[in-house]
Amino acid sequence: MKRIAIGGIAIESCTFSPLTSGIEDFLILRGDEMRVRYDFLTDWKIADHEDITWIPLLQAKAIPGGSVRQDAYEALKQEILTGLRKALPLDGFYLDIHGAMNVVGMDDAEADLARSIREVVGPDCLITTGMDLHGNVTRELVEQVDVFTAYRTAPHIDYMETREKACRMLVDCLDQQIRPVRAWAKIPAGLPGERTSTFTEPGNSIYATLPQSDAREGVLDASLWVGYVWADEPRNAASVVVTGTDPDTCREEALRIARIYWDARKDFQFGVPAFDADTCIAKAVSLEQKAVFISDSGDNPTAGGAGDIPYMVQRLLAHPDIASGKVQCIYASIPSATAVGICQQAGIGNEARVQIGGKLDPVHGQELELTGTVEFLLPDDPIGGDLAVLRVGGVHLILTSKRKPFHVIREFTRLELDPKQVEITAVKIGYLEPELHETASQAFLALTPGAVNQDIPQLSYQRVARPWFPLDVDFDPGDFNVAVIS
């Protein structure tokens, strides 16, 4: 029987956010609780392989946020390592990470985690990983991990397939006694996910070329990371890793993919019309139709923003048709446990006066005072805690006691709100997730303030490795310093 353990820590960390992430921000799964992440491991068995014992240790996942506090990271890491020592000997390990975790005082936390795991499992154990394409991948990480793959879609609809592929490649390598090589290329460019969606060009066409690399003899997988741009750290860059058995072929494909991405760097654009908040609102109102979506992108919690900047709420209420209630809007959402508590105390149908914003991210936003009518209360949401809907003018403002993303229609309808029945739904998000995209009759992206501001050159980078696009525009990266690691 082969023995494969599973564990990891996954978060996307914005270093521009003043809100750090602690142990309380992670959903921690241990042992058999982890099966919900791996549909393909039915009863902890992978198809056609009865000779493997899977050992789930710990997987911790948080919605994107600020840098992880050292005590939280160390506690999670040490629990994984303790479980590993008890599980030895191991033939393989699946490292379940995102790829853009920043820990306070540490630039490359994933490499540190992989290195620590390698020290326990030894040099002969094969380590695999299936990552988010918004990770920042360093040579140090590639030196510790044997087998790589990453999502090929953004929005991410292939996350489960990627996890399965990572595990299947590991099993195949064990069966065939393959010790893969990896060709790694760092592409000195940082672009936000809102410009690099694989649902639009040129992202769609670039990612469509990856199967060409997979098909070459000597290649197991070719992966391209666009990187995570809101991290002021030296590893911030796009990257390529080609995993395979032939060093020369892997190098050729890594260079080919890197060059394709680099040559297209200036062609990436937002997938929907993008303007300042007031312009987006004016255009949405002028359409005189329902189900228009506006992304409040600068404080997007699913990109690492704190999520409590009330700027967009203020701008919505500055429009006379919205303030009067002639035009109806949904806004999702603002986290404020205090505001939710005030709404609960007031009760449904009664007036409540709340202050929102200026707490989680006082650097980029200020407090806003509002008076409205409590429309709905929902206790004990698994992510958002207690929820409330407060109507102010024509704005149905969703308040949450904890940071919560809104990615599917059910998150609205369970609050008795229906984006299909109101003119405008404004969401703290970047590109729309698939279900919201399908619902939208028209979508706009509002360029709003926040820690994940879309105006990348305006952010206060101090530590990215230069030259780096878009801070530096015209330079030649040469052969991208492609490295083959075995």
Provide a brief overview of the structure.
With 486 residues, this protein is of the alpha/beta class.
- Profile the largest sheet: 9 strands, mixed
Helix content: 25-40%
Summarize model confidence as the mean pLDDT: 97
Major sheet: arrangement of strands = 12-20-13-19-14-18-17-16-15
The best one-word shape is globular
* Amount of beta strand: 25-35%
Helix/sheet category? alpha/beta
Outline the low-pLDDT stretches.
Answer: none
Put simply, the count of helices is 13
Radius of gyration: 23 Å
Number of domains: 2
End-to-end distance, in Å?
26 Å
What is the β-strand count?
21
Strand-helix topology:
Blueprint: E1 2-10, E2 13-14, E3 27-30, E4 52-61, E5 65-66, H1 70-87, E6 92-95, H2 109-121, E7 126-131, H3 139-144, E8 147-150, H4 159-176, E9 181-187, H5 203-208, H6 210-214, E10 219-225, E11 238-244, H7 247-263, E12 274-275, H8 277-287, E13 292-296, H9 311-318, H10 320-323, E14 329-335, H11 337-346, E15 351-356, E16 368-381, E17 385-392, E18 395-400, H12 410-413, E19 424-427, H13 434-439, E20 442-446, E21 483-485
Helix pairs in contact: 1-2
